[in-house]
Amino acid sequence: MFKKILIANRGEIAVRVIRAAKELGIQTVAVYSTEDKDSMHVKLADEAICIGPAEAKKSYLHLFNIAQAIANSGCDAVHPGYGFLSENPNFVRICDDLGVEFIGPDAETMERLADKAKVKAILDENGIPTVPGSSGSIDDESSLIEVANRIGYPLLLKASWGGGGKGMRVVRKESELIDSYRAAKLEAKASFGRDDIYIEKFIEHPRHIEVQIIADEFGNIVHIGERDCTLQRRHQKLLEESPSPVLKEYTRKKLHHTAVEAAKVLGYKNAGTMEFLFDGEDFYFIEINTRIQVEHPVSEMCFGIDLIKEQINVSAGYELSFMQSALKPEFHVIECRINAEDPDKFYPFPGTIEGLYIPGGPGVRVDTAVACGTKISPYYDSMIAKLIVRGNSREEARKRMLRCLDEFVIEGVKTTIPFFQRLLTTNDFINNNYDTNFIDKKFLGST
Ligand code: MV4
Known about the structure:
Layout: E1 4-7, H1 11-23, E2 27-33, H2 40-44, E3 47-52, H3 63-73, E4 77-79, H4 89-98, E5 101-102, H5 107-113, H6 116-125, H7 141-151, E6 155-159, E7 169-171, H8 177-192, E8 197-201, E9 207-215, E10 221-233, E11 236-242, H9 249-266, E12 270-278, E13 283-289, H10 296-303, H11 307-315, E14 332-339, E15 351-352, E16 355-357, E17 364-368, E18 375-376, E19 383-391, H12 394-407, E20 409-411, H13 417-423, H14 427-430, H15 438-443
Parallel strand pairs: 1-2, 1-4, 2-3, 4-5
Antiparallel strand pairs: 6-7, 6-8, 9-10, 9-12, 10-11, 11-14, 12-13, 14-19, 15-18, 16-20, 17-19
């Protein structure tokens, strides 16, 4: 087993990884920007190394500074968390060159799977259902028109190397196609440095459902159920739950099986997530995430496992600690992302936490790195805490979440708590009557 892990991240995910490592008897090294010198992840780690000033580009994203910290720390493994360098194959190669294990997929796999158009084409050839669209990226404007006519409108242009909705354009009629294509290309180039675009049929009212998988080096691949992440705002997830309240048992089993098959086809190792769109009847693969995600605790609480420990285990070359047959979803779980934001406009609202009471009690988990006096920095994302609750039914989990939101006290900054209190009491949430457009179109429009 590893002796010392460096955590190349900050905030609640750094704390989460430090806790898992400690329980495994592994020493921990935090890295931090000057802005974060008093943060919880620095306090909780056995050692801490400063990697630069506040701006992420000069610290948490700075390959050379982090490489130096890795070399100086004497660690034998690195956990990247999510965001920052977690999906950067060059960072994985740096770890390789330094002789330390990157906790995640290997560099070649990470790079190969970053091309979403390519991944879809490969899965399609192997019988995995994907959204109808182009096979790979579109090379020129004449094939664009040809493919668009074959698929039909409305359609969606997506950046092959993209994420977060950047470089995405809905096209409703042929007259808009070329202009939208050129605009998507420019946006993709500016955001990701590559302007490859692919086309999909636009699914107007999907649910966004993802399947957690984890694979070891012995060929064992298991799924840890699905997470319904339909409730988003500007491609930022707000609330996630498991199991998805809209899947019938037959479809759910087929979805899980499909996710595991896709992981096999792609030769995937370590923890990953297969994202699907569900249109009420069928599901379609859209992309794979090669990192641990923000919402991983939803699956952990549903199944009673520890995904970070399993990631560390399989990266160290051990077998997964459980088989598929041992995994049973035991609870309904809901997670709310509590952000320091103006709850009506969803603008970041940095400031200092002057007062804090964190809810507790049975079936409650709060992943956070804040305490009284913590400054929510404008330099990083505005998430203060993940509030995760479980119940024996969706209704019990919903009521427990409302109880916890009521208990939660965060003074000094505005938060998304009031938003969730309204959301969780609307009939559309209670009755599962929503799709990915819900927050943008209906919910905020009516308040
Ligand atoms: C889609 C889609 C509908 N049809 N693809 C958005 C981010 C990326 N992870 C996948 N996304 C979507 N892809 C097709 N073919 C709907 C979404 C989508 C979405 C779109 C608009 C506004 C909010 C959204 C939230 C989740 C997913």
